[in-house]
């Protein structure tokens, strides 16, 4: 399985390099929606890469106990992205349909919102796996509010991006520029919101490592196995993967901001090599890490058994540290 992912990564990377040398931004492309002619070869690779990862996610979702309903957002997002690449091929035959371009662009632009929602709900559920006093002390926001605050924030930015993305394809230059501005505002707000979430995740991990070292380093954890149904005692593995996904998502956010800031006919928007290098490829890499480590395996209930005596923390002999 790991060799297959390495092969896919190599194929994606080399094809992206080739795209940079031969973007089809011809005179005809200047007169079509999007300003470029999508490369079918890249789209086929996108379908295979996201489709395969999505299938693995669906397999984990239905077979790894306990089934966490909220985790459906991840395979749905990967499936939607694969569909976006299918629509990209349909739009390219020939690339002159405004309606097909708008639908394709919105599906690819908005599918990653589900990846963000996945990380939000993961942190909330990971925090709930600890005692309330641990979660409340280590989180900057109560775990019950994390999903509500950030998901509703993303709903608002989702509407801005979808509205702006639709307007960018209009023939009217003023409306297209207005769409770019609206979409840019939505992307900036989304990036700021996710940046705040990343800070909350880092602080959460740091505070546990500082104030609850016995939780940070589990006692006698079972050996970690990739692509397994076995529970993961060392929950830090999930945190590390979440941090990597945050990096990939932030890279994509910065790219999208640069794309919209450059305008509908800007260099970044009309050369798809940038899209594959800073959007499709990093997102696929980081979200495919959940194929190797399905998050539900690390969301078991944890009891700290800690009593706080003033500023000093001691293990409560009557409540030994355990995994329930």
Automatic annotation (TrEMBL):
Membrane disposition: Multi-pass membrane protein
Sequence intervals crossing the membrane: 42-62, 69-91, 103-123, 149-170, 182-206, 237-255, 275-296
GO cellular component, as recorded: membrane
Principal location class: membrane
Localization (cell): Membrane
Pfam families, alphabetized: RTA1
Listed InterPro entries: RTA1
Signal peptide: 1-18
UniProt keyword list: Membrane, Signal, Transmembrane, Transmembrane helix
Protein name per the record: RTA1 like protein-domain-containing protein
Organism, scientific name: Mycena albidolilacea
């Amino acid at each position: 399985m790991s060799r297959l992912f390495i092969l896919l990564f190599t194929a994606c990377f080399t094809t992206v390099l080739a795209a940079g040398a031969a973007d089809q931004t011809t005179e005809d492309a200047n007169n079509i929606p999007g300003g470029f002619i999508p490369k079918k070869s890249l789209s086929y690779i996108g379908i295979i890469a996201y489709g395969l990862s999505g299938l693995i996610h669906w397999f984990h979702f239905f077979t790894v106990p306990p089934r966490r309903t909220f985790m459906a957002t991840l395979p749905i997002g990967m499936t939607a992205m694969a569909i976006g690449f299918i629509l990209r091929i349909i739009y390219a035959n020939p690339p002159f349909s405004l309606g097909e371009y708008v639908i394709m662009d919105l599906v690819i632009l908005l599918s990653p919102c589900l990846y963000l929602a996945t990380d939000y709900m993961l942190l909330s559920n990971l925090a709930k796996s600890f005692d309330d006093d641990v979660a409340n002390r280590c989180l900057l926001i109560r775990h019950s509010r994390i999903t509500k605050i950030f998901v509703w924030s993303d709903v608002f930015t989702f509407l801005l991006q979808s509205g702006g993305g639709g307007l960018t394809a209009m023939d009217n230059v003023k409306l297209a520029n207005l769409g770019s501005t609206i979409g840019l505002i939505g992307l900036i707000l989304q990036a700021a919101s996710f940046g705040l979430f990343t800070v909350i995740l880092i602080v959460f991990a740091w505070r546990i490592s500082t104030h609850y070292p016995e939780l940070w380093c589990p006692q006698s954890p079972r050996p970690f196995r990739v692509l397994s149904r076995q529970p993961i005692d060392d929950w830090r593995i999930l945190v590390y993967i979440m941090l990597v996904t945050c990096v990939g998502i932030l890279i994509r956010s910065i790219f999208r901001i640069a794309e919209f800031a450059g305008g509908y006919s800007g260099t970044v928007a009309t050369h798809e090599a940038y899209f594959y290098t800073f959007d499709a490829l990093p997102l696929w890499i980081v979200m495919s890490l959940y194929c190797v480590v399905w998050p539900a395996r690390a969301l078991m209930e944890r009891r700290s058994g800690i009593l706080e005596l003033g500023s000093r923390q001691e293990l409560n002999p009557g409540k030994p540290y355990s995994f329930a």
